[in-house]
Amino acid sequence: MRIRVLLTVGLLAAGCASAAQGPGTIVARPADTGAVLVNPGMGWVLHHYDNSIIQYGARLEPSDTVDDFPGVAVIYLRLAWSYIEPEEGKFNWSMVDIPAQRWIAKGKQIAFRFTCSESSLPNATPEWVRKAGAKGYTFRPRQGIVEGSQLWEPDFDDPIFLGKLDRFLASAAGRYDGNPEVAFIDVGSFGVWGEGHTGATTRLPYSAATVRKHIDLYRKYFKHTLLAANDDFANQGRGRETIAYARDQGLTLRDDSILVQGGDNAYFSAGMAPEFWPRVPVILESEHFGISRDRGFWGDGGKYLQAIEDYHASYASVHWWPREFAAENRQLIDRINRRLGYRLELAEASWPAEVAVNSMLPFRYLWRNAGVAPCLPGGYPAFTLKDDKGGVAAVFADGSFNVLSLPVAAPDKADARGREATFLWPSILKPGAYQVYISVGTRTGTPRIALPLADGDGQRRYRLGTLRVLDK
C-alpha cells in the first residue's frame, strides 16, 4: 500500500494569489498586509525615565503601557547613578524594577543608561563618591566651570570615581548581563546626560583614552548584553579612533538628538554607521520632539525617517510624551514602521501538488527584506502542516537558509532571494486534510519573527493554503 500526498491551494489567505506553474505546481504570492511588526532586535524605544524621574513614561498610570502606540518594543530607563545607589553598597533597584515589570508583562524589553552627569541634577554621581575624595568640578549649564555652583560633575579620569563606578557596574551586570529582558545598555558613564561630551557642563576636552577607560569598564562586566557607544565619543577633538575602538569591542552605535538642529544639520554621524549596521542594531534617538518642533526644526519629521534610512537603524526613540508624539506624527510613525529594522516579505512560495510518501518533498520560496537593516537575529523558514483541530501534524524547517543573508536596499528596491529545500516525507503523517503555514524562526521550526502576512495563527505562523494526504 502506498500513500500519496495531493497538495491544493484551496482558499488562500486574503491578499494571496495562486497559479499553476505546470502540472501539479501550486504557487502562493501573499501581499504585505502593512501590519506593524514587533520583532526581536528592532522597534520603537519609549523613554520612561529621561533627564529626570518624572519624564516621560514616568507620568503614566501604573496600568498604562501605551498599548495604542504602534511598534513600541523597548522601554528606555535613563537614570542617574545616584538614584540607584544613594548610599555606597545600598541599591535601590526598585527604581528600575517597578516600571520594568509593567512593560515586560506586555512582552517588551527594557534598556538602560546609567548617567554620572546631568545638567539639572546637582549630583548625578552619588554625593558619597565626592565625599570619598573623587575629584570633580562645579559648573553652570553651557557656561563651563563655575566656582560655587550647586551642580557637580566628576573628573571622568579620577581613580576614586572610576573605582566606585567599577563596583556599581559589577552590581548592575550581576542583575542584567545576559538577561533576555534587556535589549541593550548604553556606555553612559562619560559626559553630560551620558552622551559622551561635556559641552553642556564643564566643557573639559577629555582624551580618547578616557573614552576607552569607560568602554573597558563596561566590557569588563557586560559580556553578553549588547552595549552601545554614543557617536559623540568622537567629539571635542577625540576623533574616529574612539568609534573604531567601540566597534572593535563589539559595541553598537547610538546617535542622540537627531533634529536638535534642522535641515542639513539634522544629524552628522551617518558616515559611522556602515561600521556597525551590518552586524549590530544601530540605535537612533531624536531630539526631545516638542523642543525640536517649537524651534521649527522638526517640520514633518521627514529628516528622522531619512536618518533611519541613512544609518540603517534598527531602533528609533519616542523621545517625548508618547501620546502627544503619536498624535502629531501619525503618518510619520506609519512610514517609519514600514522601514525601521527588518521586514521580511514572502514574495512567493510553491510546492508540488502530489508527492509520493517515499519521495523527497520540495518547497520553493522567495524572500525579501523590505526594512533598512539586516535581520540580525537571524531565522530560518519553516512550513507547518496543521490538522482540522489546529494541531501541528508536520514541520519542515529549512536550517540551511538564514534570512540574515537577505540584502537591504532603498524603499521598494530589495531583491527577492530564495531556494528550493527538499525534505524527507514523515511516515507518521496520516491521510487527511491539512493547512499549510509559513513561519520564520529557529532551525527546529519554532516561530520567532512576525511577518506582514494575513491569516496568522497567533503563534507567528501564517496560512498559505491546504494539503490533502490520500490513502491509496
Notable traits:
10 helices; single chain; 22 strands; 472 residues; disordered N terminus; alpha/beta
Short description:
This protein is α/β, with parallel strands linked by helices and 472 residues long.
Identify the strand order in the major beta sheet: 4-5-6-10-11-12-13-14
Whole-Å distance between the termini? 7 Å
Q: Unreliable segments (pLDDT under 50, ≥5 consecutive)?
A: 1-23
On the 0-100 scale, what is the average pLDDT?
92
Q: Which structural category fits the helices and strands?
A: alpha/beta
Instruction: Give the number of DSSP strands.
Output: 22
What does this structure look like?
- The protein is built from ten helices and 22 strands.
- The N and C termini lie close together (7 Å).
- Strand 2 and strand 3 form a beta hairpin.
- With 472 residues, it is an alpha/beta fold.
Secondary structure topology:
Blueprint: E1 3-8, E2 18-20, E3 25-28, E4 43-49, E5 72-80, H1 81-84, H2 94-104, E6 109-115, H3 127-131, E7 136-140, E8 144-145, E9 151-154, H4 159-176, E10 182-186, H5 208-221, E11 227-230, H6 241-248, E12 252-258, E13 282-286, H7 289-294, H8 302-311, E14 313-318, H9 322-328, H10 330-337, E15 344-352, E16 354-356, E17 360-369, E18 380-386, E19 392-397, E20 417-424, E21 432-441, E22 462-471
Parallel strand pairs: 4-5, 4-14, 5-6, 6-10, 10-11, 11-12, 12-13, 13-14
Antiparallel strand pairs: 1-16, 1-22, 2-3, 3-15, 7-8, 7-9, 15-17, 17-20, 18-19, 18-21, 21-22
Helix pairs in contact: 4-5, 5-6
